[in-house]
Amino acid sequence: MENCIRMIGVPVDLGQEQRGVDLGPGALRYAGLSTRLSELGYIVEDIGNLPVPVRDVLGAERELRYLPSIRQVCETVYLAGRSAITQGFMPIFMGGDHSMAVGSIGGVTDEQPAAVIWVDAHGDFNTPQSTITGNIHGMALAALLGEGFPELVNVGRPGAKLHASDIILIGLRELDPQERLRLRGSGIKAYTMRDIDERGMAAIAHEALGRLAHRTRLHVSLDLDGLDPLEVPGVGTTAPGGITYREAQLLMEIIADTGLLRSMDIVEINPILDHSNRTAKIAVELTASAFGASIL
């Protein structure tokens, strides 16, 4: 069933403060994600949105940064991801903020490991001790490596879900001071915007995939704020000087060439801040390229 895709909506907005990111799954559907993938020959199943608590009724959790509810959401996402893989589907998780990746990546690696390409302006490698904002979407990658809140580290199964050698970060340009120090000592290979500017996306993409050649399955975690905000205005945590649309397309096309992509996150789309659903439309085209759409 390698031609079967399962779309899973995760309208979580609890990992950050900007309202509206919970509307991301609907924006992707409206932009025609299912139709676009079907046109490529895939059998697409959309199971709707997973249950996520409404932030406005979680006042008692505010001081906890909504950690109990985020943990529960990630547990649900984990089960959905594991089930999709077990049933032979390639899951696409539609966020929602990036905190959901604790569950999605955990779930798709439940039975066998996968390499991860994490496209993001930010490292998401904070812990409760290093964070400036306290926002949990900035701690997702750290939790997947076994660091941070035990409630997140142990989602789905105890302990780390990834090794440092399984992860490539692409598009970095905004890090907290302590997060920068942590990332330098982590063993994770990170390509910053300077690397992309100096060497070009093609060289970066091929080198990144070479570093991940020890795995036979690939997960892409696409945070739309990895792209330049001039290209994608509908994101909550903007950082100027990001990946261009064409660079992002090339990265996805090169990923598709490997034939190893088995799952994907699309996160941090905020339709309230967008212009005519432009960001979701771009996300749909990038997803299509990752799953094999080509110019010729």
From TrEMBL:
Pfam families in UniProt: Arginase
The UniProt record lists the keyword Hydrolase: yes
Any one GO molecular function term: arginase activity
Cofactor: Mn(2+)
Cofactor descriptive note: Binds 2 manganese ions per subunit.
Keyword tRNA processing: no
UniProt keyword annotations, A-Z: Arginine metabolism, Hydrolase, Manganese, Metal-binding
Reactions that this protein is recorded to catalyse: L-arginine + H2O = urea + L-ornithine
EC number: 3.5.3.1
PANTHER family reported in the protein's UniProt record: ARGINASE
Family (UniProt): Belongs to the arginase family.
Protein name: Arginase
